[in-house]
What does this fold into?
Amino acid sequence: MKLLAAAIAVAALGLPSAQASSPATVPGLVYTAGYGNSILTRYDPVTLERSGPRIRLGGNANSWAFSPGRRYLAIASFPQRLTVIEVATMRVVSRTRFAPGGGVTRVVTWAGDRVLAVVEAPFGTVVVAVDPLVGRVVRSTRLMRPFGYQFERLPEGLVFLLGARSRIGPVQLAVVDAEGVTRVVTVRQAAARAGLAVDPVGRRAYVVDGEHVLTVDLRTLDVSDPGPLRTLAKAPLGSERSARWLGNGLLAVSGLDRDAKTAKPTGLRLVDVRDRTSRTIDPTATSFTVAGRVLLVEERSSGRALNVTAYGYDGRQRYQRDLTGSWWMKKQGRLGYACRGLFLRTVIDLRTGSTVRSGFPARTPCPTLLVDDSRG
It folds into this structure.
């Protein structure tokens, strides 16, 4: 049975063959009693059995990223500590502290032979570049605007939005290279709650605000506004958007339009930036996630069941699941962990919606497995 579970985990998580030995374990976090006690160890992604060394991070983990080739794992934990671990041996390579003066690390990414971190600080935002093998900060840049929570990783850096302190005003876009050099452009046509999607091949960022999809050339920081999409109505000033780049000219976009009394869902839309059209594939969605090459829309109905609907990048519905007894779901690799409160109920394959395992013992913690880079 363990061999079968390991085989399912290898297929579902998409692990490389070198990691496909039995059991196919992955790094994961254990949260112990009290604050600041995250521990890293290895888990079987289906049985959740733990094995191997245990590394105390010295604080609650905020963000993590794998190096190219997945040899190293960088984990940021509170307060402003970066721990770099060799994945195969679970050996600590270095520990680094950065951003004095308080703050929480919101993003970590690996860019070439550097680790970049974005810290939400009391006065604004700090961008830090670290030499991870020696544990040394090589550059630190202060930005006076708050972190906007929308970001995308690039192989050679990072792109993220900066908001306005009053939440009213134009958004800014920051582009960080592998050495931590940070360039900022103000996108005056977009408000602080805009969405962000990045085409890493075309070197373009798309800032989505209501009916507008603005383009930023990441090389020159030139901003272009071709006008509103032909198939979208004008949005109110209180619009909120989230966006993801899907490739082949497509964005996925969702969010809310707010006025003084109501919040109206915009639905999940596929936007084609080539002909500047969009079509709605789920009219009631307010948010979505991308996992296992499907778009996932989750809705909790009557407090008793989590409803999960999956769409392909072509807009067609792949499956729909009612996960009775679950309230929310963690997406980790190609597996989804449906949980009720803090405890695990069911594991599903996000590509197909099929159940991988259920019937866990009572009070089995909902796991945090470090399969992909964190989204926030």
